[in-house]
Each structure stands twice: as C-alpha cells, then as structure tokens.
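Hi there. Long-time user, first ticket. I'm pasting a complex I've been working with (about 925 residues overall). I'd like to know whether the download I got is complete or cut off, because the file seemed smaller than I expected. Thanks.
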Amino acid sequence: MTAQLTIEDFSLVFRTRHGTVRALEDVSLSVERGEIVGVVGESGSGKSVLAYAVMGLQDAAARVQGGRILFGGLDMLGAGEQALADVRGRELAMIFQSPRTALNPIRKVGAQIEDILREHANLPSRELRKHAIAALARVRIPDPERRYNAYPFELSGGMCQRVMIAMALACSPFLLIADEPTTGLDVTTQAVIMDLIRDMSRDQRMSTLLITHDLGLAGEYCDRIAVMHAGHMVEIAPVEELLSRPAHPYTRQLLAATPTPRSTVEGLVSIPGQLPDLRRDLPPCRFSARCERHVALCDEAPLPWTSLSATHLVRCRVPL
Amino acid sequence: MSRAATLGRNIGHAFGENRLTLVAVAILLVLLVCAAFGTALAPYDPLMTDSTAKMSPPSGLHLFGTDALGRDILSRVVVAARLDLGMAISAVVLSFVLGLALGAVAGYFGGWADRIIGRLMDTIMAFPLFVLAMGIVAALGNSVLNIILATMIINLPFYCRFARGEVNVRREMGYVEAARMGGNRALPVLVNHIIPNILPAMMVQASLNMGWAILNAAGLSFIGLGVRPPTPEWGIMVSEGASFIISGEWWTFVFPGAALVLAVFCFNLLGDGLRDLLDPRRRV
Amino acid sequence: MTQPLLDARALTKRYPVGGGKRGAMLHAVDAVDLTIAPGECVGLVGESGCGKSTLVRLLARLIDPTSGNIFLDGADTTAVSQARFVTMPDRARIQVVFQDPSESLNPSFRVFDSIADPLKRLLGVRDRDKLAAQVHRAAELVGLPRELIERYPHQLSGGQRARVGIARAIVVEPSLLILDEPTSALDVSVQAIILRLLADLQARLGMSYLFVSHDLNVVRLLCSRIVVMYLGRVVEVAPTEELFTAPRHPYTRALIASIPDPARRGEARPRLDGSPRSPIDPDPNTCRFYGRCPTGTDRCATAMPELLRFGEGHFAACHFA
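Hi, the file is complete. Here it is re-exported in full:
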C-alpha cells in the first residue's frame, strides 16, 4: 500500500498577542489509498487546525515549526501557492462543518459545481451542466435536474451538505478532508451522509480524513482512528483495537465518557481536570496533569512513540 | 480584586491597546476645560470689539488674530466650546434616551408598537435630515433649545433603529428566556437584562454620533438658523470668516473650523476606544 | 394511578406565515398530549424542526398555546396568559435549563446575580444573608466552586457555565425541570460530568425531568420513558428499554437505526432519506410521515393515524405499528 497522505512530526504554533499557542506538536499520521482515518478529539485538541494545515489553508498567525506534510509526491509545506491551488479542489477536497455558510448563498448550486469543474476538470463548456447534474445524482440527491437550479437557502442542511460533498467529489479527489461533516445535522441525516462518504471512498478508492469529536461515529465509519489531546496525537490504531484495547489513558477515558447504547449513567467516566494552557511551558506529555497513571518517567523529554503492534502506536510511557 | 481596581486595569488595557484613544481623551479634556472655565481662561472678553485691531493676523497679542470687529478669535473659540459641546451633548443624550426607550419597546414587544414606532422613524428618515433640522428651527424659532430639539429629532431614528435591532436579537436569547422563567416581567427583563447588554454598543454609537451632532448644531448656525451673532459659536465664526477666504484673512475661519474638526475627530476616536473598554468580553 | 405532576392536553401551537398566502399556518405543535408523573424523567426526541423547542416553550409557559391546556397538579396553568403567569407562585415550579450555556447566561451578570435573580423575583427573598446562603447552597449542589461565584460568565469554562445554568434553575426548587439539550454544546468529557450531576440531583431533590435531546444515547441514560415527535405530533411513547428493543413506529425505527454504533459496523440498516413534509397547513387526513415512510400506503394518505396503545405505557401513531 502507498500512503496518500503522510504527516511527519508536524508542529505548528499560533503567534497571538497573549503568547505563542503551541497548537500542534510532533503530529504524525498517514492515510493510505482508499482508507478512512478518523481524527478524534475534544475542542481545543487541534484536530481542525491539522485539517486546515493539510489543505495548506493557514491562519495568518500560524507558523510551521517543523515536520513535513506529503500529499502524493508533493511537499505541501514547501509548495508554492500556485501548486497548492492546483491541487486543492482537484486532488484534495474538503467539506466543512456548516454547509450552508460554505456555499455561496446567491448562486445556484448547479452553477457552483460547474465552477469547480471549469476550474479543474478541463471539460468542454457544453458538457459542464451534464457533469454537474451527474455529480448531484452521485450524492443521491433526488431529482438532480431540478435541484441543479436550487439556491442553497431552498435546501435543507442535509441537502446542502450533500451539495458540498458533490462539489468536493466532482473532480474525483484522491483525498477528502471532512471536518465535522455532520455536526448540526439530525442523526437520521448524519447516517445518510456518512454512508455516502463511506461508499464514495470504497467505490473510488478515495482516502478520507474524518475530523470528529464523536468517537462513536468514527468507530462506525473509520478504518483507523487517531486520538488527539491538546495538540498531541496520543494514539493511533485500527478501529476494533482502539475501541476494545485502548492503550492511552486518555483514549480509555474518552471511550468511557462517550455514551453508547450499552452505557449507564453510573458507568460514565468524566475526565478530571482541563486541557492545559498551550501558551505555557508544557510537560513532555500534555495529559500528565490529568493522568492517574502519571509516573516520574513521564516528565522526561522526549516522549517516545511506543509500538504495541505494527499498526497500534501510542505515545505514552506507561500504556495500558 | 475590587471593582475600582478592575476598572482601572480595563482602562489601562484599553489605552495600551490604542494610543489614539489617549490622544482623544486629551483633546476631550482640553475641550471640557474650555467649556467649564472658558470665560476665565479667555485672554479677552469674547464680545469686546476693538476698532484699533480689526483683522489683525495672529501675533503675540492675539494668538489667533482678530476678526472684522477686532474681537479676539482665541477667546471666542475658547468660550464657544461650552455652547457647542453643550448643544451637542444635550441633543445626543436626549435622542439616546428617547431612542433607546422607543427602540426597546418596538424590538421587545413587536406588533403594533413596532409598527407605529417604525413608521414614525421612517417619516423622520424620509426628509433630508439637515433640511428637516432647518425646518424645525425655522418653524419653532431661533433658540438654543430649538437647535437641541432639532438635532435630537433628526438623530432619533438612528438610536431607535439601533436599539430595536439589538433588543430584537436578544429577545429570544437563552438568558432573556431564563430571566422570564425567573419571574421577570417585561419591564424588568428590558431594564435589568437586555438594556445593560446593549448599552456598550449604544455608547459607542453615541460617541461616533456626537461629532455629527456638533457639526449639525454648528451647521445650523452657519446658515444663520440657530445661535445669533454676536454669541461666540464655532459655526457662526466659520460663517463670518468665510467671506474673507478670497481676501486671504485665513485666521478668521481656520481657527474656529479647526476647533470643530478637532472636536469631531476627538469623539470619533473616543467611540473606538469606548468599544474596547466597554466590551464585557474583554473584562478581566 | 396517582395524579400526574404535569398534564398537557391537546396542546397546539400555530404560527401565521407569509403575507401573500392569506391565513397560511405553520403547525409547530399539533394536539400533543403529555403527562409527567412526580419524580419521573421523560425524554423527548425528534429531529430539528419537529416542534420539540416549541413544545418546551409551551410547557415552560414562555409562549401561549393556540389551544389546549397544561395542568400542573390538576390546576390549569393555561387559564392565565404567560405574561400574567410570570408573577404566579406556580412560575417557580417549572424551570428550564437552556441549551447553550454561554448564550443562556446574562453576560453582564456575575454568577451570583444570575442565580440570585430568580430567588428575588419568584420567592421574594430580599435579605442579603439569606440570599447568599441559598445561592451558595445551589452552587454547592451543582459542584460550582465558591470562588467562581463572583465571576462573569465569560471567565468560566463551558462546563462551569452549564453548572451555573442548572444552579439558577434549581435554586427556586422547581417540581419540573425541563432540560433543553443541556449537553449538546459540551465536550463528551464535560457532558459525562453534567449527566452524572443531573442524575444525582434528581435522586437528591426528587424533581421530575423533561429531557430534550437529539442524542438517543444520552436520553436513554436518564429517562424511564421516551416521547418521540415528528413534525409537530407525538408518534410514539414507550418505556425506554422497550422503545429501543421493540420500536413500533417506522420513524422511531429509523431514528434508532441511525445512532452510530461501532458494534454494528458495516451492517446494512434502514436509512431515512428525503425531507419531511411541509409543516405549513398540512393535510389533517394524511400521516405526517407519509412520503418518507418506508411502509406508507394509500391508507396513510387518507387517514391520520391516532396514537394507540400497544402495551403498558407504549403508544404509537401508525396504521401498521
């Protein structure tokens, strides 16, 4: 297998007037062809920052401190703006949390899909409409000819997200980054959208990076899950293994805090403490202040990755 | 930490962020001192004519020069501060209070109250505002009170609409519904829960509007509808000096004009500074 | 059967819409019956736009119903308008914990004032020491550290704000606490804390809960009975376990099948596609779920199914349940 996306020891900080926020530190992750990888974490874990960094879309205050992001053969951090623009939309696509605001409110959705095709697909202009309708049909929008002429406000949130997916998939990208694609949608709609994303990855051998706070959702749809905490990637493992044998104390507690059809209110575990302030001096393990397994060794830098198996990596001195 | 210390830190913070606010406050202090002690500070009686020193350019004797009647321009500019600021502040305070009350009622209750108040404001807005102000003063008579009234009326829609919009978005917010659950009737909800939260934004608007109110009051006097000569007032002074633009006696209109510009500038800067200071999210 | 604490009968709320179409009405809540027993915890689920929020506002007496009644311990609270209800003693008996803890706290009120305001207004507590004692007790009940009481909401974390919202609601000792998506804006680790707090408070104070959420996994943790709404109507009511193991209404089935569950990975499950019917002037003789329902027949288009009994405390509104 070849990695579609490789992130190696990636570090990124934000310079703010209240200090330097060390948003990501030594993050490593790879996504294979056709694989769905979930990046799971609570708010402030840096999962969205990572998604935007992969897209090459960075806040003006962001500074890359080190590491590499390789997309196919392209070094995303070294590539020029033109090279990035060529890749984005065609080979690398992203869908966002609020589909309604990500669509242009005063243009028909069909025309917005045509824009993408015109930019990237190299099609004769009389073919554009046909392809746009086909793109809407592919995301199972009922009556695509009629929806082609719809404005975003005429569509429900779920339909808007499908349009976003249609736009993202219009050029058959190699990698789809889905940043909380179903947050704010109903659970019934969420299931339909996630089924769609999964089927698209399977059918087109498209890699997907799913950014979510919902471990249950990631558990159902991903092949592998990477757990993030306070800018660190703390554990990466295949889904079944991560859910049944979490090795990082944080992963275990996150699992125990997530309600499932089998949990009880007494069994719900809350994670003590709060995220550390990323502007302060931080210990090598950013979870150490909240961790019940903390030992003296944990405070020795650098914090190494431990391999429990070829595919199960954990960044903890005393894994479970 | 005591409230005073917190406030002190906030003020320090706002100034640290924005040096220009400090400049604005300095100008404001100068203007206020002039307004309070103008007659005592002025080197000459602002009404005293001196036929021996007509149209003398700025000199050691008359820093800003003298006008066609030989009156000292510096003294007139300084003394005028009270009237100009007084008119503008009174007008802004009145339209602020009335506009807030009307806008809050329209925004919170909606329905008939909203429709009636809305139409009333539309009617005012339908006129070119300065022409409306001229009409009001012309109809009611040339007096300081009527200038204030006219300026208040033409500013009213501005505050009313702003307050209506702000109240309207907050009406359905969780904390307002919670206040109703907590036994607050309409009036306490408005007075205790909604209005304190829109005041900061309103104050910023008022400060920005203040410059405009000064210009408006001075403008009325400039065209001869308002304060009558020989009362020292910046608008009249600019108007009197304007006839000497061609003959080159620049000091007759530049100094009162500069006072106007400075006052407007000061309030606009102050508005920006206030926004930083009053924003509750920035309180430490 | 003991008298229910809350008994809503044929509760209906309609809103006029549009200027052009004369008399068009949006049916937000349509003839909803709901009872809550003392000390009972009832869940309310449904998709966005199904009328949950309107129902919450009706039950909380924040808005007046178009028709229907709400009885509290047998007394009709809808006999007076909501504007007058604000000053009635019963006002203190129904309280709400609102969805977004950051939006539901007055930004210019310190925590103390937020909690003290309902005490002053509803219970007429004026004495400063007594007020402080009660505020501190409520803060203690929800596990809010004492030093946070003088802070402003923006100085608190999301979980702390959620606690303040709960403290404010329980300080007047309500009989019914309506929880309107109390944890949807929180991270899972904080959600776990708040859910446990709510379970603990109910055990200690004996309040009834109406727990509104879109997350069935959360609702089932606290509630013994669940009400499912679809497009303004109640489509199913059942004891929690029964609802999950033997749902009768096709919408409930689709809803349960949509819950992400790693244990059922890769299983083909029924999916609910398409959009709901329009809530504006819906045909009174057509099932609201018709068109989206996998089993809809002509009968569903000509007769509105009634809520029928299918077992102890289990009701569903479907011809084919």
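A couple of notes from our side: The longest strand of chain C covers residues 25-36. The interface with chain B takes residues 57, 60, 62, 83, 86-87, 91-92, 94-96, 98-100, 103-109, 117-118, 121-122, 152, 154, 165, 168-169, 172 of chain C (CB under 8 Å).
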